[in-house]
Design a protein that fits this description.
By secondary structure, the protein is of the alpha+beta class. It is built from six helices and eleven strands. Strands 1, 4, 7, 8, 9, 10 and 11 form a seven-stranded mixed β-sheet that branches. A two-stranded antiparallel sheet has the order 2-3. Strands 5-6 form a two-stranded antiparallel ribbon. Helix 4 crosses helix 5 and helix 4 packs across helix 6 (234-248). It is globular and about 60 Å long. The model is unreliable at 1-6 (pLDDT under 50).
C-alpha cells in the first residue's frame, strides 16, 4: 500500500484464456508480459484504421521543403509576442492556403460522387493517453496565425484532458500529423476518412543541397502526402504538394 495514496494498487488484469493460448502458440509464455484490455477509444481507433487501410486505395507522395526562411519568419513573429507561434501553426496555415489554391485535393469520396469542400477544415492529430484525437481548426484559410495558435493550444489541451465536444473533432476536410518533435525523419499516415488526404510531417534537419553545381546547407523538412486514389490522383497530389512547398518557402507573402 502506498503511504501517499493510502490505497492498494489495482492488480493487473488477467488476459482471457484464449489470448493466453494464442500467445503461447506464438512462442510467448505466460508470465512474461502485461495485458491491457482495449478501451472504447482504442477499439474505435482500431476499427476505423482497419477499415481505412483495407477499403481505401492509398498512395503516398514525398517532398523535401526548405524551411530556413519560415523559421526566420517565425522568430520575427515571436519576438516579444504574447501568443507564440509554433512551426506546426505555420504549416497548418500553409496547408490551408494550398488547399484553396488546389481545391481538388480538399475533397471526399462518397459512393454517389465526389464532395469538394469550400473551406480548409484541418484536423490535427494530437497524442493523448490511450490513443490520439484529431481536433479541427475550421476555415484555416480565413484565420491569422495567432488565431490558429490560440485555437490549436486550446484544442490540444482539452483533447488530452478528454474534454472536447464531438463537433470539435468530428468532420473536417484534410488531416495533418506531425511527429517531427519525436525525432522522426519521415513517415506516412493512414487516411482519416472522410478526408481525401493526410499530410505527415517529419523532423526538420540540416542537409546538403545543390543549386546547379553549387552546394549549400539548408534546413529541410520531409513531408508525405497520403491520398485516397478514388478522390486525388497522382498529378493532383503532386500539384498540391508543389503549391504547399512554394507557400512554405515564401513565408513573407502570407505569414503576417
Amino acid at each position: 500500500m502506498s503511504e501517499a495514496s493510502g490505497k492498494a494498487a489495482k492488480p493487473a488484469p488477467s488476459p482471457p484464456e484464449e489470448i493466453v493460448a494464442q500467445l503461447e502458440q506464438q512462442g510467448i509464455p505466460a508470465g512474461t508480459y502485461r495485458f491491457q484490455p482495449l478501451d472504447l477509444m482504442r477499439k474505435a481507433i482500431s476499427r476505423r484504421m482497419t477499415e481505412s487501410f483495407r477499403d481505401i486505395p492509398h498512395f503516398a507522395l514525398l517532398a523535401r521543403i526548405e524551411v530556413d526562411d519560415l523559421m526566420r519568419e517565425r522568430a520575427r513573429l515571436n519576438e516579444g509576442a504574447e501568443v507564440r507561434i509554433s512551426l506546426n501553426d505555420l504549416l497548418i496555415k500553409a496547408a490551408g492556403l494550398a488547399l484553396q489554391r488546389y481545391p481538388a485535393a480538399n475533397a471526399s469520396f462518397t459512393e454517389r460522387g465526389l464532395v469538394f469542400h469550400e473551406h480548409a477544415d484541418i484536423a490535427v492529430a494530437v497524442a493523448m493517453e490511450g490513443g490520439l484525437v484529431t481536433p479541427i481548426i475550421r476555415e484555416v484559410e480565413l484565420k491569422d496565425l495567432r488565431e490558429i495558435s490560440r485555437e490549436m493550444k486550446d484544442l490540444a489541451a482539452r483533447g488530452r484532458a478528454k474534454r472536447l465536444m464531438p463537433a470539435e473533432y468530428v468532420g473536417g476536410t484534410f488531416s495533418i500529423s506531425n511527429l517531427g518533435m519525436y525525432g522522426v525523419a519521415s513517415f506516412g499516415s493512414i487516411l482519416n476518412p472522410p478526408h481525401g488526404c493526410i499530410l505527415s510531417i517529419g523532423q526538420a534537419e540540416k542537409q546538403f543541397r545543390f543549386r546547379g553545381d553549387d552546394a549549400y546547407v539548408a534546413t529541410v523538412l520531409e513531408v508525405t502526402l497520403t491520398c485516397d486514389h478514388r478522390v486525388v490522383d497522382g498529378a493532383t497530389g503532386a500539384q498540391w504538394l508543389d503549391a504547399f512547398r512554394k507557400i512554405v518557402e515564401a513565408p513573407a507573402a502570407w505569414a503576417a
